[in-house]
């Protein structure tokens, strides 16, 4: 993708509480599930951390440390500002880096967490890169789009598969993970309602503000139009498509 479009995508997500769909309730439910597999003060990573929303939650729940990695400098600057004077300041390490470059990712980890980021770099590549970064029996939790019907409507398939090349159903995700060597412990769907409240509604307010001054034909204008199309499609097909959390364990 051209740099201008990447910068436009970053721009419309600036200062949003989340950079993608998520749910604190679902995350805490998964934390509860993962806790028995982890020792005290686990060493953790948050890949594709954005402004660190999940990083804070991880530290607050597990009382461990988090290496928070993202390629977008503006998002990491938001994280650094949030950390100033915060009790988590010394437990979260912001790192601007490539999620597929092991030299920038650190480790080994008890837990790797990644919400909505695997599809950006390629799911299989991400899982293959992160597998060696885990300690024996370490956990990887990631969320990614998945089909929720065996036969989604052709219009939905045409739209989403041209934008998310890794899109598959639950079983497809499980087969990919198992082929790499992971054991799939649990899956959990993100409710459609959380997609709206955590992501689309805040982003809509941001888009409305930017639309007042956007230059027609610019990269930002194109990204804004794409957002409007995405929300219209999700309104129509959210029963067929959504985010799923996958809890994996290194074998």
- Taken from the alpha-carbon principal axes, the silhouette is globular
Beginning-to-end CA distance, first to last residue: 35 Å
Strand content: 15-25%
Order of helices and strands: HHEHEHEHEHHEHEHEHHE
Would you identify the regions where 5 or more consecutive residues have pLDDT less than 50?
Answer: none
Major sheet characteristics: 8 strands, mixed
| Overall strand count | 8
Structural class: alpha/beta
Mean pLDDT: 94
Rg over alpha carbons? 18 Å
Helix content: 40-55%
How many separate helices?
11
Write structural notes for this entry.
The structure is a single chain. The chain is of the alpha/beta class. The protein is 47% helix and 23% strand. It is built from eleven helices and eight strands. Strands 1, 2, 3, 4, 5, 6, 7 and 8 form an eight-stranded mixed β-sheet that branches. Helix 4 (73-83) links the parallel strand 2 and strand 3 (92-96). Helix 2 (24-34) runs parallel beside helix 3 (53-62). It is globular, with a radius of gyration of 18 Å. The mean pLDDT is 94.
